[in-house]
């Protein structure tokens, strides 16, 4: 690859050697140290590549061997510059383009975030924007170490962050909820304090009757058949440690874990207007091509039309050179699909079908979440302006959510409470 670039910069010529002494011509070139490559027989002659310097040394060889040399084609930068030597605007534009590329290479034009699962790219980009890390910032202002510290400080569940610059891209890689953490030697007091701080309870997220409870970590505070209210502790992360006398002398702290199900009632309500707009799409599409530089748009067509109603769809791509050299220039197309709308009314049967279909989808979603339907009292009511589906569902469903544990004090022993005599 490097050799091809060097040859292109220096320039070379494709020649055809005609005559009965072509072999003598090749031997003479070898004797003179003239480099030839790409040798190929063509119709009783030979074609080959030769450097510009070597071509200038051929005259005595041609005369001595009685051959004829014809130039087939010229390659390389010297011939290109000679061909367009009078086109000053072309070279001026090319020079300006190179200058602009060099200038734009000093800025960040794309921020790429990978490894995030629980948060969207947009939310992390918004946070980075609050720290003045955004598209268009100079590379010299990018402090990768500071970006790493800010992200780890803002998001507790992100345990590893890497920030690096490649081309005009700022690449941020994150890791969330990784189980294998570095082993750090801690004292027993530090371990106990950490356990206290991380202890969690499972509390009721709604009012229900407990139908099933299987603790895995923590201690159950309720039993099957108990009526609980929202906020009641179902599983405590603090397990008491008792002595032989049954006195609590300490607590073991856990992040509570359990399978809990309860019976509760869910209110359901949905509605559908009787009057609706029916769209009739026309066989007409208006397209508008555009180029966006930063916040400025250059439109290459227009989507204006005589129709009052239409839908707009757009596609956009950012320009880049190679994989990592992004430019602050995007191009895209906007398409307008005109339509005519007409007011129509649903029949009573159609309203029932629409609301019934939505309700079936709702029940299917509940079943996917592990919800068991016990009783269904949802009914459809039809009025002059809209139809409504209202009622309640009696269900058995997973219950509980994590909450920081309300730490308990260890009871004092009687002998500790007595004063010395």
From TrEMBL:
TM ranges: 89-109
Source domain of life: Bacteria
Alphabetical UniProt keywords: Membrane, Transmembrane, Transmembrane helix
The protein's name in its UniProt record: Sporulation protein YqfD
Source organism per UniProt: Clostridium scindens (strain JCM 10418 / VPI 12708)
């Amino acid at each position: 690859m490097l050799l091809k670039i060097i040859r292109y910069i220096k320039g070379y010529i494709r020649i055809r050697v005609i005559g009965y002494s072509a072999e003598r011509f090749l031997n003479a070139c070898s004797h003179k140290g003239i480099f030839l490559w790409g040798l190929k027989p063509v119709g009783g002659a030979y074609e080959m590549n030769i450097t510009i310097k070597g071509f200038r040394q051929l005259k005595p060889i041609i005369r001595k061997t009685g051959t004829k040399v014809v130039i087939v084609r010229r390659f390389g930068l010297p011939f290109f510059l000679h061909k367009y030597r009078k086109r000053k605007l072309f070279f001026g534009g090319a020079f300006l383009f190179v200058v602009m590329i060099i200038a734009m290479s000093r800025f960040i034009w794309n921020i790429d975030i990978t490894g995030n699962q629980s948060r969207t790219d947009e939310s992390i980009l918004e946070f980075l924007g609050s720290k003045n890390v955004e598209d268009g910032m100079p590379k010299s202002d990018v402090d990768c170490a500071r970006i790493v510290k800010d992200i780890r400080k803002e998001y507790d569940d992100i345990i590893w962050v890497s920030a690096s610059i490649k081309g005009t891209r700022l690449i941020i890689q994150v890791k969330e909820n990784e189980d294998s953490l570095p082993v750090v030697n801690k004292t027993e007091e530090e371990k106990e304090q950490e356990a206290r701080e991380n202890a969690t309870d499972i509390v009721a997220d709604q009012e229900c009757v407990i139908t099933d409870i299987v603790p895995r970590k923590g201690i159950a505070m309720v039993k099957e058949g108990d009526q609980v209210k929202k906020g009641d502790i179902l599983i405590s992360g603090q397990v008491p440690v008792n002595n032989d006398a049954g006195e609590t002398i300490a607590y073991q702290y856990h992040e509570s874990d359990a399978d809990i199900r309860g019976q509760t009632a869910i209110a359901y309500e949905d509605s559908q207007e009787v009057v609706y707009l029916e769209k009739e799409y026309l066989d007409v599409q208006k397209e508008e091509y555009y180029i966006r530089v930063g916040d400025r748009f250059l439109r290459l067509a227009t989507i204006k039309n005589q129709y009052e109603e239409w839908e707009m769809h757009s596609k956009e791509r950012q320009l880049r050179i190679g994989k990592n050299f992004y430019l602050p220039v995007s191009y895209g197309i906007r398409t307008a699909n005109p339509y005519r709308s007409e007011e129509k009314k649903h029949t009573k049967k159609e309203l029932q079908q629409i609301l019934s279909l939505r309700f079936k989808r709702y029940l299917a979603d509940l079943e996917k979440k592990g919800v068991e339907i016990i009783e269904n009292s949802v009914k459809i009511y039809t009025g002059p302006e809209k139809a409504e589906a209202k009622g309640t569902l009696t269900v058995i469903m997973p219950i509980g959510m994590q909450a920081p544990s309300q730490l308990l004090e260890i009871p004092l022993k009687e002998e500790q409470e007595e004063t010395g005599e």
